[in-house]
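Dear Dr. H.,

I hope your travels went smoothly. While you were away I took the liberty of generating a structure for the chain from your last submission, since the lab meeting agenda had it listed for discussion. I wanted you to have the full record in hand beforehand rather than looking at slides cold. The sequence, exactly as received, is reproduced here:
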Amino acid sequence: MVAQKEEKSAVEMKTKPDHPEISVVIPFYNEEGNVIPLLKKLSERMFTLDRSYEIICVDDGSNDGTLAKLKEGVDSFSSVRAIVLRRNFGQTAALSAGIDHSYGDIIVTMDGDLQNDPNDIPKLLEKINEGYDIVSGWRKDRKEPFFMRRLPSMMANWLISRASNVKLHDYGCTLKAYRRGVAKNLNLYGEMHRFIPALASRYGASITEVVVNDSPRQSGKSKYGIARTYKVILDLVTLKFFLNFFHRPMLLFGLAGLVSATIGIVLLANGLYIRAVLHETISDKPRITVVAPVTIVLGVQLLSIGLFSEMMMRTYHESQHKPIYSVRDVLEKKRDDETDG
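The corresponding predicted structure, in token form, is as follows:
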């Protein structure tokens, strides 16, 4: 009996330290059949790593028995904490909530449907130990229908890689590992969780990927479908703006405004030449009477939007004291009193 208590005490010290090395964040939405099997499998695998850890489960407004199963998991596993959201905010918000409530130096995210294999976590940690900031899972052998799931995913991965210049085979895989400094710097909205590696590239994060297992779903229904494609496309436009023009929006709106205004001015000058020099009528030339004023007005509007965006960007950084850079490390020589002990 004493031995059992000592063993339990050792486990709690290992899995619930003041500052765990690893935080595993898992969003759940209507996954009551997967909660306990996943927590059991994950806890067993994490314990073998001989590193302190915590497991953070986020209930994203489930309307089945997921919350009850999470309460059971919190009671059964000393390493587990549960964050309960007031309603269904989506996977991006759930992941963000879990990251915000984590304490680990390394943050691992994974799905709550048992399709991500906890046995792949050591592969991610090994790459993190090599010096990478983000390690993304690549489900090379996916167990899903080709036309409904895999083909749209392949197209999306190609588009995101081209738009962001961060070449990954599987942006949609939730199984990823992050250094704490990178994960905490990301402000996620909409469906942007799948773009985290691309967003992190703005800060100069080093990114790689490893092949991971993809298991077929055993319980519950998938929350993904081809209908989500339009959301991915819209978020991709947002991603492109954030990567290329977030800190200098005038480069986008200003360039478009100058091009539009220049076209209008050239057309207007052509109309004046025709009317004043050639003495011809321009009332029958819509490119002059319609297109010229419209393009000039549009150019002025775009330039105005660019100026307002620049002011908003400065307000964003100055009011929140947010720098426009991200520091990876600070190297400095030790003082004499430190080296002398």
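Two observations you may find useful: Residues 12-245 form a domain with the Spore Coat Polysaccharide Biosynthesis Protein SpsA; Chain A fold (CATH 3.90.550.10). Residues 1-17 have pLDDT under 50 and may be disordered.

With kind regards,
E. W.
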